[in-house]
Amino acid sequence: MDRIIHWSIANRLLVVIVSFGLLVYGTVTTLRSPVDVFPDLTAPTVTVVTEAHGLAPQEVETLVTFPIESAVNGSTGVRRVRSSSGIGISIVWVEFDWGTDIYIARQIVNEKLQLVAAQLPPDVSPPTLAPISSIMGEILFIAIRSDRHEPMEVRDTADWVLRRRLLALPGVAQVVPIGGGVRQYQVRVDPDLLRAFNVTLAQVEKALEESNQNSTGGFFVRGGQESLIRGVGRIASTEDIDRAVIEVRDGSPIVVGQVSKVEIGPSIQRGEGSSNGTRAVVIAIQKQPGANTLELTARIDRELDAIQKTLPEGMQIERNKVRQADFIETAVGNVALSLRDGAILVAIILFLFLFDLRTTLISLVSIPLSLLVAIIVLDWRGVTINTMTLGGLTIAIGALVDDAIIDVENVFRRLRENRSLPEDQRRVATDVVFEASREIRGSIVFATLIVMLVFVPLFFLSGVEGRLLAPLGYAYLVAIFASLLVAMTVTPALCAYVLPRAKSLGHGDSFVVRHLKRAYRPLLVRSIAHPKLVAISAGALLAGAIALVPFLGRTFLPEFNEGALTVSAVTLPGTSLQESDRLGRRVEEILLAFPEVVSTARRTGRAELDEHAQDVNAAEIDVRLTSTERSKEEFLAELRQKLTAVPGVVCTIGGPIAHRIDHMLSGTRASIAIKVFGDDLTQLRASASAIERAMKDIDGIVDLSLEQQVDVPQLTIKFDREAIARYGLRAGALAETIETAYAGTKVTQMLENQRTYDVVVRYRDDARADLDAIKNTVVDTPSGAKIPLRMLATIRDDVGPNT
């Protein structure tokens, strides 16, 4: 180490130049480093989404979810498997050990899905892997609405203009629109006309499937030129669908238009969107892991500006919704201000104690140099700039100058002593600087290492705690170690450059130091005279501090002031989408009545591309806030009181980021979640209700809610196997007929320019409007007889679990 100090003094010009280069490089690195709220807290997770159209939750769980869970359980690196089964949807989250490459994890899951594919029902869509994202993935919500266009037109623009262009931006993982109604070509078959023309529903499906294709006939050579033979037979309009031939009877064709009405309409909705209480299409934009949220948000804003110019008149993109970038800028800005204020305070204290501008500046150089070196190392390690790394650097500020101060103060004192000697006895200034730095080298090194050891236990934390706190400790340790290197290289070099010619070498201590010494001397004398009393007093204070520990509040993370809220509004399972939408709009009206609320964006039910199995009885409202004179606590207390006025709705209030962290930790969007396991669903519900009653009177608990797992109304069609065998039917064929008649079956696609729309066949609405109409549904049999459904199955009202 003596050699390092000696070399630094001997090559002080080179040391200063390298230090300046590090300052420039560190500044550039800081400006281009990714900025985020937190380190990536998401364990490598693969989300498997399976659409099971029309299946009840218990069937989805048994036939789809359980086989997938069984297949992925025990796979290499899998640490936890969670799932959710809803009406027609199965979602399985497969979490891997920390450090697992996400692409390897997806490959493992994909291989397991290939094995389980044969076990799934034939009419269930193949399981798909959701895009790679993280809990902080939803960086932006926007809404698009219009007073001049139909909701279906607005949704069409969202699907084919906004979504496509946003997905083309680097860093965007997924764009999920909800609301408005997906455009479809609907063939609404009249069962009475089917009987009149003596054709079957299956024949209508087959006719449409075979009436929508292009073909090639090779090449036609004419002279010296060849032409491609191209048969164009794709459907291009509703008239083309009407003219599709079902069969020819007695020389006359029976076409689709004779037994059905073809219309363009919205698909069956399981979700709705709203902006500020008005119907709209709400779009959630998710980023890819590792993408810079601030840069990506800026790119999205520029793209939205360009898209807005091309939209039809009256159609507006609303962006004043929840934006994660706003919170990041505020959080990072606050930490940066703390960093700045800390540096200013350190500079003031240094000057008051040293009372010399040169020594103060030499000591202060260690702050930016150490911080920027730390950021360079963090960048090399792939660590983003976030509140935790900045927090570690902020904690380190006070300690960064310690080593430099000790060295500068000792060098300054030795140079002063050397100046006071007769001229013939004075030593060379560089030798004095070297000896002074060498004297306190051991103290600096050992003191720094001891301080660094305090943070080492952070690296032994596992799970989310380790992922969250390790960057803080890493940033702190790198900065402190950098300050040690600065104190052993840059500080001696600058001292050798600047201090030998300082005029203040002839002065004594500053007036602050003189007064402090004068006040401290009697206290020091009395403390030395009564060591036992000092030790007992210190021990009593330590014991008192330890005794207070059990009374301190404990939480994983402090409450964030995000400038936004996420309000979860859940009504009774079994509530229709229309009623749930009405109740959600009422909650929005209450929110918008508060002066603190800037805007709202509500998503009721589940979007078509969403990986969250939220039923239509649940709504999630993202609320953007502004500050007012009253406190946030007063605002939330009044808001909770007002929301109780909405009948049948349970509201839970939290922050967007806090909700997502809670969901990652417990699988639910709550700070504390209690899970009850067992085989008997009825007993589980009873136990959960008892736990809820026991908890509701505990001080500090708000928004207590029980997961809505109740029996919801179902219409059960139980096949009479003897009857269907009598008429030569198979259960599978009958099930497909029921699905087509009531839910609809996609038979082909319509191509309009570069947009594709499903062509769906189902019965007209009044044919499935009531129980009698369903019972009288005519089923075609192989013998040609047409039998009402009531003769083939028992149809009754029933109940079943909602999830």
Summary of the model, kept short:
The chain is an alpha+beta fold. Helices cover 48% and strands 21% of the residues.
Describe this structure in words.
The two termini are 67 Å apart. It is built from 26 helices and 26 strands. Strands 14-13-18-19-17-20 form a six-stranded antiparallel β-sheet. Strands 2-3-1-4 form a four-stranded antiparallel β-sheet. The model has no long low-confidence stretch (mean pLDDT 83). It is elongated. It is an alpha+beta fold and 803 residues long. Helix content is 48%, strand content 21%. Among the domains are: 184-234 and 247-260 and 709-803, Multidrug efflux transporter AcrB TolC docking domain, DN and DC subdomains (2-Layer Sandwich); 327-508, Up-down Bundle (Multidrug efflux transporter AcrB transmembrane fold), CATH 1.20.1640; 518-549; 564-707, Multidrug efflux transporter AcrB pore domain (Alpha-Beta Plaits), CATH 3.30.70.
Beta-strand level of the residues, as a percent range? 15-25%
Counting DSSP H or I runs of 4 or more residues, the number of helices is 26
Q: Which regions contain 5 or more consecutive residues with pLDDT less than 50? A: none
Chain-averaged pLDDT: 83
First-to-last CA distance: 67 Å
Instruction: Specify the biggest β-sheet.
Output: 6 strands, antiparallel
Give me the count of strands.
Answer: 26
Based on the coordinates given, report the CATH architecture of the domain at 327-508: Up-down Bundle
Write down the overall geometry. elongated
Helical residue percent band: 40-55%
CATH superfamily of the domain at 327-508: Multidrug efflux transporter AcrB transmembrane domain
Task: Return the CATH topology of the domain at 327-508.
Answer: Multidrug efflux transporter AcrB transmembrane fold
Structural class: alpha+beta
